[in-house]
Every structure is written in C-alpha cells, then in structure tokens.
Amino acid sequence: MASKAPRRRPRPARLSDARASGRPDAGRSIAVTGAYGYLGRALIERLEASPTVERVLALDLKPPPGALRKTRFLPVDLTRPRADQAMAEAFAAHEVDTLVHLALFYNPIHNASYAHEVEAIGTLQLLDAATAAGLGAVATISTTALYGAHADNPAYLTEDRPLRPAAQSRFLADKLEVERHLQKFHAERPETRIAVLRLAPMLGARVRNPATRLLGRPLVPVLLGHDPLMQFLHEDDAVRALLLAVERRASGIYNVAPPGPLPLSSIIQLLGRAPLPLPTPVARAAMSALWSLVGFGTAPSWLDYLRYPWVADGSKAERELGLSYAHPCREVVAEFGRGLAALSASAEGVA
C-alpha cells in the first residue's frame, strides 16, 4: 500500500485560498503527471500559452521536450515508496491548486503487475499527496471501454450507466480501480473537485492503443455476423477537453466522445484496409496465441469490442465543459487513414 504523508501544520495562505475567498485570481499553478506522454506534452503546451496559468509542475520519469518557460520538472516514479511525500512537498512549494493525472497506460502491456503498481498504487500515492498539500481540484482520464461491449447496451451510453468492462482484462481492471479510488477520495473530501474524463478510443499519428494496433494492419480481423458501430476521438479534442476541465475547475464524470459513430465495415473501407472475416472461436484462439506466445497483436480481452456496440454519449461534456468537437468520427478515421497511407508510401520508397 502507499505510504501516508505525515500530518502537516496549518498551511499559510495560498493562491487557491485567495480564489476561494473571492479575491482576484493571481494565477493558476497546475501539476501534470505523465508529462512526457503525448497527452501530457500537448496539455503542457496549452497551459504554457494560457494567460491564467502562472506555473506548471511536470511530473514523470522523463521531462517533456522543448523550451518551456513556465514549467518546472520533477522526476517522479509513482511505484517508489514515499513518492507521495516528495510530491506533497513539491505541490506545496509550487502552490499547486490543480492536479492533472495522466500517468496512465493507453495500451495494455505484458507486465500487468507493473501496470497495476503505476496506475492503482500510483494513484493512491498521488491522492495522499493531494490531501497533504491541500489541493482544490484533481482531473484525470479514463476510458469509455469501461462500459463494456454488450449486446444489451443502449444506442448511446451516458455517464450514469454501469461499468461492465471485459472481465478478463487486467488493463481495464486497473482503470476501474483508479476510478473507484477517486470516488472514495471524493466521498471523504467532497470539498475537492474531481473531474474524470472518459475518453473514447483515440486514433492519431502519436497514439498507440488497441484500436491503432488493430486498424493499422493491412488485414483487419472482423467477426462473422458482427458489424458494431464504433467511435474514435482525435487527440486534439482530448487535450481541449482536459484544458476546459482545468480552466472550469470541473467536477464530475464526462464522456469525451465525438458524434457520428460509424460501422466497423465503413471504418475499414475509409482506412483503405481489407477485412479479414473470422469465426469468433478462431479469432479468439489466434489473438490469444499471438498475445501470450509472441507478445504481438491485441489482447484477446478486446474481442467483444468487435462484436457488440459501446458508443458513448459525449453531449454532457459539450453542455457543461463547453467542449465543441472539432473532429467528428469520420474525420478522425480519414486522417488516421491518410497517415497510414503516407507511412506505406514512405516504406515503399525506402525499399
């Protein structure tokens, strides 16, 4: 379990205290974990450009690249004992008022124990640090895959639907545990604003996840008799949603999912790929063998996501965060397809 930060003496007045009392905002101070990842980098670029942000504290094993004016880097390993104490001290020293937690995996890895340490235990360490430093707001990301792909799913899944992810997925089990840690934290400290953004699967040049691994193949496995509606999110819209959640000090759960879902068959056609129809038992056996024996392909726990619908309703984020999706699903898929074509042309030129 994560070690507990020691009790602290009463804090001196801070920027967040001035805001709470209604005094003019003297400038935000934002901490971002997972700062080296593509979402972390992109968010920090936006925070650097924001006139209301005075300081950014970047936490990761590696610093974000580039010349950053407002950002200070703190090397942190969330799996190390007493990491919470180091972070609490840094949060207090930099007068952080909001934590954005992005130190989460976007793609299943084979070392499931390490992934659990980073996500579940690391989140506990972060929340201990947030408590010790008296942070006023926490924002993080999750995934619409937590709703699960089921034959009885409604046409659009809203934020109040039960979470029923694939039972055999360690990857999704960790995501579910992170959400439960946050729910418990908020129940114990309701004065802290907690925003959870459940992102639809992203497609993009910098993205590596089950969707890009599956759809990036020349032959895309599909299940005989199934053609579910699917939706994909542009990474720019994901970053804009995070920025809005920070700016508005949002509290609640929000699906971040663009309109216009498409059948899997249409997605494959838009990408210029070819379907590889397989009976479900054959597909399961093949995916299991590739994943467990040679560490290749997509985890077999994602097979149901090719069978049943799991389309999320992203309208709450539009209403409450003011998010306007700049990239509808068809555009996201088409852009990803152009990237695949460029990569293919480049490879042919090298050959």
Summarize the structure.
With 351 residues, this protein is of the alpha/beta class.
Question: What does this 3D model show about the protein?
Answer:
The protein is α/β, with parallel strands linked by helices and 351 residues long. The protein has a domain at 15-207 and 233-258 and 311-327: Rossmann fold (3-Layer(aba) Sandwich). The chain has helices at residues 15-20, 38-49, 83-93, 112-133, 170-188, 210-215, 235-247, 264-270, 280-293, 315-321, 329-350; strands at residues 28-33, 53-60, 71-75, 98-101, 137-143, 193-199, 202-203, 219-223, 229-230, 233-234, 252-256, 262-263, 274-278. It starts with 14 loop residues before the first helix and ends with a helix.
Mean pLDDT: 88
Reading the helices and strands in chain order gives HEHEEHEHEHEEHEEEHEEHEHHH
The count of strands amounts to 13
Rg over CA atoms, rounded to whole Å, is: 21 Å
Q: How many helical elements?
A: 11
Helix content: 25-40%
Assess the beta-strand content as a share of residues.
15-25%
